[in-house]
């Protein structure tokens, strides 16, 4: 594959934002209001979110997810199964267990157990926060690296007034290696396809409301 094409795809799909430096925290009690974790089966995501919580980056974590519409049940942890070996009913229950094992206060965990795909992760997480009267000015999005562009799209549409900081977690598929294996190419190029087919219906309500100036 042409080097420039690889670089262009990599820079588009894999996002990462710089978190505020600790010396800037004096102007704000905490850098963010909440940490979002879209559904999945890798414990590395909630482990990373737990680390951010313990460092004081946000007071709340919203683990989201039921299970995939294609599996109709949660199939278990895809890594570290020797640690997270329970039979979890949902991705949310799995994430919550990881967060608790990682030392997160139960009162800081705001579970969302119904979402079955990325768009619902964002929509239903919004409902969880709205029900509690939490309207984040800034939020951290903790997701898989190759999933970061699509996650940002959905969460930004559902939280249009929120500044979203993407903190990716790289599990197997990374910026450096995705094009070197069939599995990596399938993941990343599959994201390009999904972005093309899923972006229009998500954007349409806002497009009609704000007109062509909306971006």
Q: Can you walk through the features of this model?
A:
There is one protein chain. This protein has 215 residues and is α/β, with parallel strands linked by helices. Helix content is 40%, strand content 10%. The chain has helices at 3-13, 44-54, 91-101, 118-131, 148-158, 182-210, and strands at residues 34-37, 61-63, 138-144, 163-169. The protein has a four-stranded parallel sheet with strand order 2-1-3-4, with helices on both faces. Helix 2 links the parallel strand 1 (34-37) and strand 2 (61-63). Helix 4 (118-131) packs parallel to helix 5. The longest helix has 29 residues, at 182-210. The radius of gyration is 17 Å and the shape is globular.
Task: Briefly characterize the structure.
With 215 residues, the protein is an alpha/beta fold.
Q: Which secondary structure elements does this structure contain, and how are they paired or packed?
A:
Layout: H1 3-13, E1 34-37, H2 44-54, E2 61-63, H3 91-101, H4 118-131, E3 138-144, H5 148-158, E4 163-169, H6 182-210
Parallel strand pairs: 1-2, 1-3, 3-4
Helix pairs in contact: 2-3, 4-5, 5-6
